[in-house]
Amino acid sequence: DAGVIQSPRHEVTEMGQEVTLRCKPISGHDYLFWYRQTMMRGLELLIYFNNNVPIDDSGMPEDRFSAKMPNASFSTLKIQPSEPRDSAVYFCASSSWGQGNTEAFFGQGTRLTVV
Amino acid sequence: GQQLNQSPQSMFIQEGEDVSMNCTSSSIFNTWLWYKQDPGEGPVLLIALYKAGELTSNGRLTAQFGITRKDSFLNISASIPSDVGIYFCAGRTGNQFYFGTGTSLTVIP
User: Cβ separation of A50 and B95 shorter than 8 Å?
Assistant: First the structure.
C-alpha cells in the first residue's frame, strides 16, 4: 500500500488567497483525520470523518477553514482567505476501525507558508 | 480535549546509551501509540499497545501500556545516530487520537 498521500508537499501563498490541501487515505480505511502541527501548539486535530461524513469539526479554528470528503479515497482541506497565522504543517491521517485494533497512519504533510 | 503530558521535552545522549520517555494522562485510553517524526516528514508509527499492562518490543524499542491505562513509556536501547527525531505518544479513546507534545531526541556520536 502506498500509504496516506498528501499534496502538495509545500505551498507558499500570499495572504488572502485560497489554499486547498489534498489527501488520499489508505484504501479500506474508514476514518480520516486532518491535523495541524506548529511549534507552539504541537499536533492539533482539526476535523475527522467516518465513512466520508464529518464527525467532529470542533478543532477547525475559524470559518475560513472547511473540509470535505466527497468519496472514500479523497479529502480536501480548504482555507479561504488564508492568513499568515495559518502557516503550519498540515497532516492527514487515516485509520480503520473494523478490526478493533486501530492505529492512525500519517501522510508526509503539507508545509503551508502564507506570506 | 484530552491532555497528554509527555516527558522529557528533550534529551541529549551519547550513542550507545539507553533512552526512556513517558506519557501520562488524566484520562483512560483504550490504545497507546508511539510515533517517531523525522524532519520534514509525517509521524511514523513505531509501536501500538492495546491492553493494560501490555509490554511490546520492536527491535531496540520497548513500550508498555500502564496498568491504570493512564500512562505509557517507551524505551530505546543502545541508541544510534538514526534514532534522532521527535517521538510522540498518542492515546486513543473512542474514535479520536490525542497526542503528547513530543520528546526531541539528539544522539551524539
Answer: yes
Q: What are the grid coordinates assigned to B104, written together? A: 526531541
Do the bridges between strand A110-114 and strand A53-56 make them parallel or antiparallel, or are there none, so unpaired? Answer: unpaired
Q: Terminus-to-terminus CA distance in chain B, angstroms?
A: 39
The residues, any chain, with a CB within 8 Å of residue B22's CB and separated by 6 or more, are B6, B7, B71, B72, B73, B74, B89
- In this predicted structure, the answer to whether residue B11 has a pLDDT above a threshold of 70 is yes
Tell whether A56 is within 8 A of chain B (Cβ). yes
Residue B2 has pLDDT above 70, yes or no: no
The answer to whether the Cβ–Cβ distance between A45 and B1 falls below 8 Å is yes
Q: Which residues of A touch B97 (CB under 8 A)?
A: 33, 45, 93, 95, 104
- Residue A54 is placed in which grid cell? 464529518
The string of pLDDT tens digits covering residues A35-89 is 999 988 889 999 999 999 999 898 998 899 999 999 999 999 999 999 999 999 9
* Contact yes or no for A42 and B102 at CB 8 A: yes
